[in-house]
Specification:
This protein is of the alpha+beta class. 25% of the residues lie in helices and 23% in strands. It has a domain of 136 residues. Strands 1-7-6-5-2-4-3 form a seven-stranded antiparallel β-sheet. 32% of the residues are buried.
């Protein structure tokens, strides 16, 4: 099934943009970074190690090696139409087999934050690739996403979404602070809700508990 048909079937009217948790139910918002302290948040610090450990554990919980995924990357263009061409290394750097890159497709869609596009000059280049979870070097990829605001390289600034085709879940790390997980139904999220309950963001816990308890 093609990406658009898949989304229309299982996540109708959902725009792939942050914050997923506030755009869809059921969902869970997990806290990744705990006890942030700027002087001690450099590479190798307990804070960064804690962020990495949590995001890797959550990803493994939702994605088995044999699972088919759509990886979706939004690259926003603010007037320089050529800038998005430099973003393809997101895929080439973190995909094990270069032959998988032949499945990469690019579509230009309306800017995913229309409320910030009053003049209509912005657009979003959406890259989609279907692959197995085992095709991804997901540990360095997740770390690069978490690094975006930390002054640590490598870093990825744009939004990357992992869609598990079979389980009908979407996983999005917005930065070192946390990540959102949504699903077509509560069932695929029950285990991750139970096993990682202590990591749920306190601010949204009441709403999340209503869905899963």
């Amino acid at each position: 099934m093609e990406f658009k048909n898949y989304m229309d079937t299982h996540f109708p009217n959902l725009t792939m943009r942050p914050a997923l948790f506030y755009s869809w139910e059921p969902g869970i918002r997990f806290e990744l970074g705990v006890d942030y302290d700027p002087p001690y948040s450099m590479e190798g610090s307990p804070y960064i190690k804690g962020v990495y450990n949590r995001v890797i554990a959550l990803f493994k919980e939702l994605h088995k090696h044999e699972d088919d995924l759509f990886i979706v990357v939004n690259v926003n263009n603010f007037g320089d139409g050529a800038t998005f061409l430099r973003k393809l290394n997101i895929f080439s750097k973190y995909i094990k087999d270069r032959s998988v890159l032949r499945r990469l497709k690019q579509t230009t869609i309306p800017y995913v934050f229309p409320e910030d596009n009053e003049e209509g000059t912005y657009e979003t280049h959406q890259f989609v690739m279907k692959c197995k979870a085992s095709d991804i070097r997901y540990i360095p990829l997740l770390k690069a996403i978490c690094n975006q605001d930390m002054g640590i390289k490598p870093k990825i600034f744009h939004d990357v979404f992992f869609i598990n085709i079979k389980n009908k879940t979407v996983f999005h790390v917005y930065d070192d602070r946390g990540c959102d997980v949504i699903a077509k139904s509560p069932e695929p999220l029950k285990d991750i809700y139970r096993k990682n309950n202590g990591w749920i963001l306190y601010y949204d816990r009441e709403d999340i508990d209503k869905v899963f308890k």
